[in-house]
Structures are given as structure tokens and as C-alpha cells.
Design goal:
single chain; 193 residues; alpha+beta; OB fold (Dihydrolipoamide Acetyltransferase, E2P); 2 domains; five-stranded mixed barrel; 5 strands
Length: 193
Amino acid sequence: MAEFLQTLSAFAVFLSIAAFGFLFLLVSLLFGEVFEHFGFEHDIAHEMDQSGPSFLSPRILSVFITAFGGAGAIATYYGLSTLAASGIGFITGAVFASLIYMFARFLYGQQASTEVKATDLLGQTARVVVGIPKDGVGQVRCRVGEELVDKIARSSDGTPISENTPVTVEQVLGEMLIVHRLKPVSTSGESAS
């Protein structure tokens, strides 16, 4: 075994590292898509958040490994020592992984989301679509950005609010909104009493 390791050149080791990284990237891309297509959505890239993949994503790490091995193999081919080739490989791997990481973050940033959070509803004007009875619940419709959101609602003071009345969202309690009637505005711009 020791004789076999001595016969391996640094070039072959770096080339093997590059091949391993490239194969890992291909397998993760191919099988990630195949398993997702058939409903096996046990994603190993659990580090994804709303802004994109983590720097430790398997795909980004495989780009680093591939670039490290490839640059190290090229450096040893041109006569550099193993230590110098490792340094060049590390720097090249970090540069390529950073470029892929920034590109992936850019792509994730371009995705539109229709998710409406509870904090997005606070202070919004809504319209009652199902009348709110005294001390009961009804339904309101609110536009947040380009999304129409229908939520059950309760009057903040317990008074009834009729259908088609504009209201303001005061509070969000789970899936229910606490609303109050908008005060009518007079023609002079002051609130009517």
C-alpha cells in the first residue's frame, strides 16, 4: 500500500480531487432533480433560506473541491511544488465558490414571493366582505402589494361592522385580524366627529 501511495504523483491526486468534486456536483444535481420529481423531497440542502443557499451548500462546496483539484493539477503540471499548487488550488476554489455563491444569491433575490406575513397586514386598510356581528367574527379582504388576502376578523370594540365598510387592521392574532372602522374624512380634510 505504501508503494502505491509513493507512486502517485501530486498531479494524479489533484486530478482525482477535481474528478470527485465534479462527480459529486453531477450526482447532487441529477439525483436532486430526479428524487424531487418523484416526490422524494428529502433535500440535503436544508440550509436554504429566503435569500438563497448557504456558503456550505453541497453544490457550492463541490464547486470549491472541483476548482481546487483542477487548479492544483494545472499548477503541478507546470512544475510548481505540492504546497504552492495547494495554495493556488485553495485560492482558485475560494474564488469559484464565491462566484457561484454570489450568482445563486442573486438568482434567489430575483424570485417573487406571494407570502404575506402578519406584520405586512398591520395598519393596512381592508374592506369587510362578510359583515362582522356584535362580539362576533366576519371576514375582511386586504390588498398587500399585488396580493388580495381574505382573513377572518373581529371588531376591536365589539361593535358590528357592516359589509363593504373600510376598516384598518389593528392587531393580528394567529389567523384572525382585529380591526376598527375607518373614520370618515370630511371635505375639508379633517376627521368628522
